[in-house]
Design brief:
- By secondary structure, the chain is an alpha/beta fold.
- The chain is built from 24 helices and 26 strands.
- The strands form seven sheets. Strands 5-4-3-6-9-8-11-10 form an eight-stranded mixed β-sheet, sandwiched between helices. Strands 19-16-14-24-20-22-21 form a seven-stranded mixed β-sheet.
- A hairpin with a 4-residue loop joins strand 10 and strand 11.
- It is globular, with a radius of gyration of 33 Å.
- One of its GO terms (molecular function) is arabinosyltransferase activity.
Amino acid sequence: MKAQQFMVVGALALVFLLYTSYHQQHRLSQTLHLDYLYRDGHLQTHSRVDWHAVWAAARSSSSEQDFIAAMHAADHGGADNNNAAAAAAGAQSGASSCPPQRECPTCPSRDTTTPAPAAPLAASASATATKPAISWTSFVVDGQCPQISKELAHSVAREGAVIVTWANYALWDFVKSWLFHTKESGLDNYLVGAMDAQIGRELVAGGVPCFAMFETGANHSGVGSDHLQWGGEAFHKMGRQKISLAQLFLGLGLDLLLVDVDVMLLGDVMEYFSRYPQADILVTSDQLASTIEPGDTGLEVPAKAQSPMNIGLMFFRFSERTVRFVDSWLAAINADPQYWDQNAFNDLARQGWDPVSKVDPVQKRVFLGANGTLAVGVLPVASFSGGHTFYVQRLYEVQRVTPYAVHCTFQYGANPGKRNRLREAQLFYDPPEYYTGDQYVSVELRRVPSATWGEHSARNNSAMTRYHFRGLDLQLEAVWPAVRLAAVSNRSVIMPKLACYCDKYWTELDKCRVPGATQTRIPFLCPMDHVLDPIFMDDGASQFKLRWREHSFLENPRCPGWVKRSRVTFYSSETASQPVEKWVVQEGGLVVVLPANLTQGALREVLQPYQAYKVWHLKDPEKFFGGFDDQKLGAAVEGRIQHLKPVMPPEPSPPPPPALANATSAAASPLADGSDTAAAAGAQQTASTGSSNDVQAGAGTGVELRER
């Protein structure tokens, strides 16, 4: 009996020893498979590891501490002299891959028939990046972004490169959009600089790798937590902080992509930068036309791309040359508080340059700047776009290339304008309630300008401008009834797609194009801020605050299908005496024919049964609204409309006859190129009746009114 008990106890002890041995080996292999070891304050990568030798070393080590110490002493993940015999035995076994999965669950599955390629300097984000042994979260204290350090920067870097942006709390929604697209592009080696304590707490709570740009105990970086006005004192101070960031991260020995938070990364930019190892700096440009042929995905031609380089997106490749240039850049703007950082960069980078002869001998599109001490490449403006080349020209379509990034430049309406531009392009990351938390009014454009570019460009500049503004008037005639209905029903207006026949710029245009923007296709889809300034929607000009959604709102995949389907279409009929409901497949469902020109109280009564529908679509907006019963509300709404209406700027040439001077009035100058009184009378008739003269003048009437 005792012998049996002894055997049972012995068997249990053997099982325990085997389990302990396996568990120890499992932990050792798991520790090693992080593939990073932290040595002397640096993260070291092991690109080539003999995992069989590692496993043999793990099995022969007497303790976890001994094994880790041995691995720290190794050069390439092998064992030290104490475990040399085990490693040699493993190597002689002929098994160069990991042990079986049942023995080493943490070992990666690996195909030994094809060796893994060496990772490039700026590896593609699509490749699986090796994770560091430490996480940025280990530096967080009390829920706040940590101060920057070499260890923090290296904890997020991949292949020696890091992406850095920064923001204050006023731009927290921009940060969320930036993060969304950066992650969608497969990039995870980023840090966000927190300019104030409030956004710092949000970043940490959201699990966003970050660093503090404000001193411990302070609330902000010195530029405040509000919006930065272009050209102001805080704006210039931010420029100095930006260059200081470049100096800081280059000082840590890292390649750096420094990018403004209003630049959305739409593709694997790091892979693109790796194609040009000759360049010390790659930078975007304010160039408004491509200097390369359609289909060419390379850099711009330096001799032709001589517009100012835009420092909203800059890639710095670490080298002594790059560090010296950034040091001189910062010194230049510190010497002059009014020296704009972008102007300083352009002045220094193009000092002593010759874009024809002083270029890289291998890559001719990389020029030698800063008196021959710096290699610079101008990124293609169709792929790394500004606000004009992306939103107005859609140059990536013209050039047939993939967009990698878009910067919100060349736009109006400050940050509200930037948000709306991004939303129109379906690039802004709004929360679900943005799509579901309101009810909406949309409209059908009944009269739109229809001249071809050949017809339009045959006019002189003055006539082209008048045609453009008269065309806007025709289209906006459908928007104002929607604004009035939104006011009485407490809804938001979904802006229609408006056609523009002239660009918008702060200097004189050249045949309705911004000078240099020769690839602009006219007409083009207007960004809303070209026509209706977003700031004017809810400023202090009127007590009525207009809520709106962008023209692509219902096309956005983030807008739930049930919102899009919850729609009723309204027709207005002068012969109808009461609402008539019809189901019309072509209109997407329910159609209601209403009496025309109903006033505020009557409209509320007839529309009450349709309050549950998310979208009210007006098919005949000009006949829909008959007037306000509440005179105070009416005055506020009409004041808002007058505040929003675009006004034709004064012409630089001698003014036309008085009858044609005001292109935004009901008796505006005609769309056709002419100045006689008969043409003016025809234009007045067109504005009031929408007759077939619109077609002759270049303004199509659209779908004719009909009852269903």
